[in-house]
């Protein structure tokens, strides 16, 4: 039958069975043929052929792509910068915008620079290395400024000085993918490429802290040496102030000989080695059996390799200092720290005020707050694990003078029905602009005013924009 020539035979076979059931009641062969025709796949319309043209670039998008308004629709071009004239291939034509590929720079921006990383053209971890580091924060602030003015109808945003760090060698946590090529018996270790699932094999990464960067090439040799190299899926690099850790994630069980090889490698490079499979996380080597730790505002915070920590130590220190300053804390104040993690803000807050109530969704991290408080001789913290999406529990929280929240990328929309009813000073630490804009709207509607705002360049060379916003109810 004609169905056999179709690429989706299963669908047609099912439809054929349905038609066969109603054949006895069909009055004519022509009608049966018409019904068969109905269930045939409609032939997909051919995609428009790519168009090559010259355009001027006017802006950077929140995805760090060049924006051109030279055509009938907005055109986004990765790798292009404002003020440039470029030759572009328009390969995706959407309803409201087009997507293009940069072919040639005809007139270059004065802000363009040579990327420091040799893998930059393919690797998807960074998006802005072609833009001078000192110029990146301005574009990030401008992106957030436009969103606040357009969506929240603000005439002006009260911008304070941005928080920045060294543009390279700053990142203290990274997750690399691992893939085994059976045909060539080759290990690929690296970051995913932009907009697809392919891995870019890397030999080094200049945005990583140096002690993590120097582990990349030895890791290639280590994984290639394992019997289970085809079953290794991921490697995570984590740095504390004094030590580093490597977490190897795998499928199926590791042989004892592989575990011994990993332990020997950890001893050779003096880093902790963890392995994780089937949700079981095991430590194979640690030179002193002490947890990783880092310092912030005079406190030493220990953390587990599963715990969340801020990715940039320099920005984190400045961020905590500024948070304490903006909240204008008094010694008799009581503060609520939501999404408290391991106590990154909690402990510094506790040194300034009478009481801090720290709330964290993960029991293990809430316990870590207590451990870190005890290790730093701080006794005015009450830490608890709580589902922050439970509105009934939220209304049982104590009334406080100030609230600090540092939610994940999804934001804190679940808190808004409760938060808008508070009269406390609210400091919102945001790692996603759209989440902050969405959550700011109900606060503004409830009578809060946006008093201070700043952008924090937690991840230089990337499109990520982190920010701090202070809301006060008049």
| Strand residue content | 25-35%
Task: Tally the beta strands.
Answer: 22
Give the strand line-up of the largest sheet: 9-8-7-10-11-12-13
Largest sheet: 7 strands, mixed
Query: Which architecture of the largest domain per CATH?
Result: 3-Layer(aba) Sandwich
Question: So what's the CATH class of the largest domain?
Answer: Alpha Beta
Give the total of domains: 4
Helix coverage percent: 25-40%
Class per helix and strand makeup: alpha/beta
The shape, in one word, is globular
Give a short summary of the structure.
The protein has twelve helices and 22 strands. It is α/β, with parallel strands linked by helices and 474 residues long. Helix 1 runs antiparallel to helix 2 (29-39) and helix 3 (133-152) runs parallel beside helix 12 (433-445).
Describe this structure in words.
By secondary structure, this protein is α/β, with parallel strands linked by helices. The protein folds into 4 domains: 2-39, no CATH class; 51-112, Nucleic acid-binding proteins (OB fold (Dihydrolipoamide Acetyltransferase, E2P)), CATH 2.40.50; 146-165 and 302-473, Rossmann fold (3-Layer(aba) Sandwich), CATH 3.40.50; 173-239 and 244-285, OB fold (Dihydrolipoamide Acetyltransferase, E2P). The protein contains 12 helices and 22 strands. It has helices at 9-22, 29-39, 133-152, 210-213, 216-225, 256-269, 313-326, 346-350, 363-375, 391-394, 416-419, 433-445; strands spanning 51-56, 59-60, 65-68, 74-78, 85-93, 97-107, 173-181, 186-192, 199-201, 232-239, 244-250, 272-277, 280-285, 292-296, 299-303, 334-338, 355-360, 381-385, 402-405, 425-430, 448-456, 466-473. The chain has a 7-stranded mixed sheet. Strands 18-17-16-19-20-22-21 form a 7-stranded mixed sheet, with helices on both faces. Helix 11 (416-419) links the parallel strand 19 and strand 20 (425-430). Helix 1 (9-22) packs antiparallel against helix 2 (29-39) and helix 3 packs parallel to helix 12. The longest helix is centred in the N-terminal third of the chain and has 20 residues, at 133-152. The chain is globular. Residues 1-43 have low confidence and may be disordered.
